[in-house]
Amino acid sequence: MSEHSMNIQDTMAKIERTREARDYTVTLADTSVIEFARSAFQFGSLTPFLGAGFSDALKFPKWNQLVDDLYSEVFGEIFENNPPDLVDKMRRIGYTNTALVRQIEVELGFQNDLTKILRAKLYNNYDEHCDDILIQPFCDMFISPPNGVNEIITYNFDNALERHLKSKGVDFSIAYSGQTYKSSGKLMIYHPHGFLPHPGDPPDDLPVETGVVFSERHYNRGAMDPNHWANVVQVHHLMNRMCLFIGMSITDPELRRFMDYAFEKGGRQLRHVTIQRKRGDRVESYLMEKDFRSLGLRTIWIDDHEDIPNILESITRI
Fold it and tell me: What angle do helix axes 31-42 and 308-316 make, rounded to 10 degrees?
């Protein structure tokens, strides 16, 4: 092919990209994507992936807020004139949340168990009476039907989902570390980042220290072990199932690494679906959707998080 022909093709490709960007509009509740997810649900091949937004209404702290509170408490005791924006200053330098937690560990000593502190702060403002906003509809639609899902992956430390299921008499099993399982039902709930049950739960629900992934050290440990149980579980579902991402921003580097791997090995198919709130900026939505597609994701856009139950109903409708 001549250099002239290549220049023409490059120019045409640029024109197409420009046209696509200019003509882009957000399609709310795209019926084709919903139907794609519904088919997977009916065939029993759908696995929900749950993020912080799933239990947001229960007043759990955001990831940044959780780190901020821990950081301020620890270093507030050390520095008499602790600046209120100390965490922000460290973030501007380039420290991530996991690296900030590592600083806390260094200061307290690596043998000091942050799990108990983390658990207390996680449930400090917990309001389980709000589980009817999303958790209850999710359970009613995805778990109760005869063809409901059998496996769920949640990146949340909390056990709000499990507490709701227990109140409804639903049997389930929990996997939250490579060696520790609580088994009492066919429904399997995986906690790849660990499990910190409510402080008021029975003693046998105590957290497993080795299963909690909160610090940079914990992430690094899993990243360097391809056979780590959590890595195997996530990659297996991304390779063999249709995964529905609920309450997730899809920005976690570890998850994106798994998705990239599964997308390339799976023939670059748009196998999975994410539910996302529409952004006010059309360009932002355009860039996000293009990014998601590069990871093998189709997008269901919604106006507000309160619309998620309606989307779930459409997906599970028989």
Answer: 50
Distance of CA 55 to the CA centre of its chain: 11
- Rounded CA Rg of the chain: 21
For residue 51, the tally of other CB atoms under 10 A from its CB is: 21
Whole-angstrom Cα distance, residue 87 to residue 143?
41
Q: Are 114 and 143 in contact (CB under 8 A)?
A: no
CB 124 within 8 A of CB 61: yes
pLDDT digits (tens, 9 = 90+) for 198-251: 888 876 666 666 678 888 888 888 788 888 899 999 999 999 999 999 999 999
* 159 within 8 A of 205, measured Cβ to Cβ: yes
**Exposure string over 73-105, b if 16+ CB within 10 A, otherwise e:** ebbeeeeeeeeeebbeebbeeebebbbbbbbbb
d(CA 312, CA 48): 11
**Per-residue pLDDT tens over the stretch 237-267:** 999 999 999 999 999 989 999 999 999 998 8
Spatial distance between the Cα atoms of 198 and 167, rounded to a whole number of angstroms:
14
Query: Cβ neighbours of residue 285 under 8 Å, at least 6 residues apart?
Result: 24, 26, 278, 279, 301
Structure tokens belonging to residue 6: 């290549």
Alpha-carbon span 38 to 40, nearest angstrom:
5
Count of other CB atoms within 10 angstroms of residue 254: 18
Residue 240: both structure tokens together? 């063999």
